[in-house]
Design goal:
Blueprint: H1 18-32, H2 37-51, H3 60-69, E1 73-75, E2 83-85, H4 87-101, E3 113-119, E4 123-130, H5 142-153, E5 166-174, E6 177-183, H6 196-213, E7 218-224, E8 228-231, H7 248-260, E9 267-273, E10 279-282, E11 285-288, H8 295-310, E12 315-319, H9 324-337, E13 340-343, H10 349-361
Parallel strand pairs: 6-7, 6-9, 9-12, 12-13
Antiparallel strand pairs: 1-2, 3-5, 4-5, 7-8, 10-11
Length: 366
């Protein structure tokens, strides 16, 4: 018997292949460069010179060739030397965001949304009830029904009546339509703080979570600045902040329009923002007030919050700011909608979004 063999432990030793190790850095940098491959590779070259990411056996040139060979990047035009992302890379970025933000999540099956209602549903429960007219035949629990018949009538003269039948109740499952609104106004990168990258990561993680675990759900993503428009999941890595004001009204109007088309009765809006509404559109022109808390703008915003409440669409606001006057506005907005609000740091944003998403899935919006 040879027994155990020990080798020297080297702190920080990385057993990953050079390509896999560099790929992690590359995918992370793509979040900060908004999908600009050239800029991300340039940053990697700078990091390599400063921190020695590569060695004589595997250099940056080898890494770029492996990126092409493995289908992570492709030349925009043959021989141009400029590269773009592939669908494989976009999915890899979403997957990394999911693992980073919701990494402790236990993945399940198709994972539809449970409700507090029982009756004719999808998933059997442990509870039994007496058979009633209208209960589907396939829900009858035969073993328990035979036992009831034996108890009620004895074994010698076995018979079964309607009163002996037991029905296993089932739990209803439902689908949820979610709209995620992301603020891309200029303030999301002001004051030396990058707020758009964490917001993008949360959006990518949430979209990947829904597509994997809740495929019957829908997720629509909206960005809003001076105006609001819908983007696709594949567009998220390329999302950038613009020289915009914050037209929350336009975002809410578009979100309501999208949810109006969804057939499910369970609808919700998640809004990630760092500022107060500063802009509305009036015909062909914009009415703006960069100082914020303009009653004309705020009243239109609050009116939409109330309208969403009447339509049974709760709004959960994730505010990446803690200014006292801004907190008061968010509280008023949340009270009018009867929704929820979180004043989150950038580090805690993903946790807040996931917890509220899971919470909303455990209840049925009436």
């Amino acid at each position: 018997m040879i027994g155990y063999r020990f080798s020297q432990f080297v702190p920080g030793a990385d057993d990953q292949a050079p390509f896999e190790r560099l790929l992690k850095v590359f995918l992370e940098l793509l979040n900060y460069t908004s999908g600009d491959v050239g800029e991300a590779l340039n940053w990697m070259n700078q990091l390599d010179r400063q921190y020695g990411l590569t060695d004589d056996e595997y250099g940056m040139g080898d890494f770029i060739e492996d990126l092409k060979r493995n289908g992570y990047i492709q030349e925009d035009e043959p021989g141009s030397g400029s590269f773009g992302l592939t669908g494989k890379t976009e999915q890899s970025i979403r997957q990394r965001a999911l693992e980073e933000i919701f990494g402790k999540l236990k993945r399940g099956g198709r994972g539809n949304h449970r409700t507090a209602h029982t009756g004719s549903g999808d998933e059997p429960l442990t509870e039994l009830k007496q058979f009633e007219f209208g209960d589907p035949v396939e829900s009858i629990a035969m073993t328990e029904s035979f036992r009831n018949a034996q108890i009620n009538h004895g074994i010698d003269e076995f018979m079964m009546t309607e009163d002996d039948l037991a029905v296993r109740e089932k739990e209803h499952k439902t689908t949820v339509a979610t709209v995620l609104m992301i603020d891309i106004s200029h303030s999301m990168i002001l004051y030396g703080e990058d707020r758009i990258t964490p917001a993008k990561k949360v959006a990518m993680a949430l979209s990947e979570l829904i597509m994997r675990k809740y495929p019957k759900d829908t997720l629509d993503i909206i960005v809003f600045g001076n105006d609001a428009w819908q983007i696709q999941v594949k567009d998220l890595p390329y999302l950038q902040v613009g020289p915009y004001h914050t037209n929350t009204v336009a975002g809410l109007e578009l979100a309501m329009d999208l949810l109006r088309r969804r057939k499910t009765s369970n609808k919700q809006i998640f809004m990630i923002t760092d500022g107060k509404p500063t802009c509305i559109r009036e015909g062909a022109r914009y009415y703006k007030n960069s100082f914020g808390l303009d009653r004309k703008i705020l009243n239109k915003t609050l009116n939409l919050a109330a309208q969403c409440r009447r339509l049974k669409i709760p709004i959960t606001t994730f505010m990446i700011a803690r200014d006292n006057w801004l907190v008061e506005f968010v509280r008023e907005f949340t009270e009018v909608n009867q929704g929820r609000a979180f004043f989150s740091s950038l580090e805690g944003l993903g946790e807040f979004v996931f917890e509220d998403f899971e919470r909303n899935r455990r209840k049925r919006v009436r």
